[in-house]
Design goal:
Layout (H helix, E strand, L loop, with lengths): L2 H24 L5 H23 L9 H24 L12 H13 L5 H19 L2 H10 L1 H23 L5 H22 L9 H25 L4 H24 L5 H19 L1
């Protein structure tokens, strides 16, 4: 991995970590669907302004097929994500998002022909296992959840869909700029979810001043994170980007969770964090 690619990956991962922290704070006062809608549509004006500065309003026609598939997968993933949280506990759903890097290896191989080195593959596997331990604590209960909790199975599906959207993002960027892709995808996802909400008769609650400021910060962090990620995957393999993103995000979550929310760091968490660091060394060095 080149120095520039590594720098973009790390910068993106840090931005995602800040975005996730801000999103967690906003989730205290906003329901998950309304939050996704506001975040997606909130990114559109800034991304569209970048498109206008580029001087090109629309991507080429070759963007249409991969762009529509990516959009459809993104919409389904968001709906499935929200539904899984409604039917099963967080502790038995969120940990399975740790499978995104592993799924991205398969997707990138099938659609892009990307083949990580053996050390990198081992590192990706180590990161996925360590992330499951960090999030889930007791591995046995997680695997039992796959048999008993619909939400756990759904979240595995979300991990697969998010991995595939990252792979398809790379294909889309051969026919569009980053700003064009970000604008169209966020407009499509946010607009579809907003229409669905309107048809179901659910209102969008007004934001107080504090939530509005938090939302603006989350939008800026999210837009920066996504743009940096899209720049990074043009220079390196998708699975490597997803692995670094997952590691930095989880380590930041541990640190900020301890500082902001008073969360406890257990022994297995520290060992798993060490395993993730070793996995990153293998990924970057491989």
């Amino acid at each position: 991995m080149s120095g520039l690619a590594l720098s973009l990956c790390l910068a993106s991962a840090l931005a995602w970590g800040l975005f996730d922290t801000q999103r967690k704070l906003l989730a205290r006062s906003l329901d998950s669907e309304a939050l996704v809608i506001r975040l997606c549509l909130g990114m559109v004006p800034l991304a569209a302004a970048a498109v206008l500065l580029e001087g090109a309003a629309l991507p080429s026609m070759d963007y249409l097929l991969p762009g529509l598939i990516t959009l459809a997968l993104g919409i389904v993933a968001n709906l499935l994500f929200m539904h899984s949280l409604r039917v099963s506990p967080l502790s038995l759903t969120i940990p399975f998002l740790s499978l995104v890097p592993a799924f991205s290896v398969l997707g990138a191989f099938l659609l892009l022909g990307e083949k990580p080195s053996l050390p990198a593959l081992f590192g990706i596997g180590l990161v996925a296992i360590s992330a499951l331990l960090i999030n889930g604590g007791q591995g046995v209960s997680l695997w039992r959840a796959l048999l008993n909790e619909r939400g756990s199975v759904m979240m595995c599906g979300v991990a697969l869909l998010w991995a595939m959207t990252s792979v398809l993002d790379k294909k889309c960027l051969t026919h569009s700029s980053i700003a064009q892709h970000v604008t169209l995808q966020n407009l499509g996802i946010g607009g579809t979810l907003l229409l669905r909400r309107r048809l179901s008769g659910k209102p969008m609650a007004r934001l107080d001043a504090g939530s509005f400021r938090g939302l603006l910060l989350a939008i800026v962090c999210g837009l920066g994170a996504l743009s940096l990620q899209l720049a990074a995957i043009q220079l390196t393999q998708v699975s490597l980007m997803e692995t670094l993103k997952r590691v930095v995000g989880l380590l930041m979550a541990l640190m900020l969770g301890r500082i902001l929310f008073g969360e406890t760091l257990r022994t297995h968490t520290l060992w798993a964090a060490a395993g993730m660091v070793l996995g990153v060394i293998l990924v970057v060095g491989g």
